[in-house]
Amino acid sequence: MAAMSTKRHLPIDGFVTAIVVTAVIACLLPARGFMVPVLDWAVKVLVFALFFLYGARLHPSETLEGLKNWRMHGLIMGFTFIAFPLIGLALRVLVPWALTPALHTGVMWLCLVPSTVQSSINFTSIAHGNIAGAIVAATTSNLLGTFITPILAMLLMSTSGGLQIQASSLLDVAIQLLLPFILGQLSRRWTAGFVTEHKKPLKFVDQGVIIVVVYSAFSEGMREHMWSLVTTRSLVAVIVVCLVVLGFMLWFTW
Fold first, then answer.
1. Per-position DSSP letters for 2-17, written without gaps between them
2. 8 Å CB contact between 247 and 71
3. Which of 100, 93, 48, 73 lies closest to 230, judged by CA?
4. DSSP class of residue 230?
5. For burial by CB atoms within 10 Å, which of 4, 117, 139, 234 has the most?
6. Is 83 helix (H, G, I), strand (E, B) or coil?
7. Which has the closest alpha carbon to 103: 226, 246, 244, 248?
8. Distances in Å between the alpha carbon of 49 and those of 57, 104, 151, 187, 249?
9. What's this model's pTM, rounded to 2 decimal places?
10. What is the mean pLDDT for each group of 10 consecutive residues in the chain (254 residues)?
11. 56: closest CA among 209, 142, 181?
């Protein structure tokens, strides 16, 4: 009976299972050849469609409210560009007995970049959170990250060479994220009703985008022979470190 009660309280989430299965499939059957550009374009199209739907779903007043929530934005920026980089620095004590210098560099980069916009918004949507705030905050942090992340890398990682920020990075973010969202907002007269009526089926678009992105990322890693670059011990160490950081930050932000 106790086991049955535990099962009811701790169900296996189908979306998380799908992510794990997708990662395994990508490792066994990664995209290669002509499928690589097809997959890259599929990701771009799906992300564009996702943000169009968010624009169509959100009332302009909700978007404006998300823009005005400066306390939320300040908190998110603080965790993204202050707390996480400090944790990355603290993890240097694990070199070399737990993490190799190269792996610490990778973990440090993980702590310097903002979360991807699509995952931030998708998981917020799945948790029934503040989607408008997530869209504004995630897009803002990614735009700021174009400038702040290279600066932090130079200060904290002793990188050599000049700081290079390409205008195309800002343009890519604007076209991929802001443009479809604005188009969605402008289309609400014709699309808001449809999106509202089909809210439950459309949630699979949110999840589907992440699934495709996971497959694309793991496929790229397999093409670059990622598993041959690390030992089993190093892989276990990275997984443990990432889980500990994740658990700590979930507790800290809570």
1. HHHHHHHHSPPPHHHH
2. no
3. 100
4. S
5. 117
6. helix
7. 226
8. 12, 36, 32, 13, 31
9. 0.67
10. 47 77 93 91 88 81 74 88 93 87 87 81 78 80 77 72 57 77 88 83 79 91 83 87 91 87
11. 181
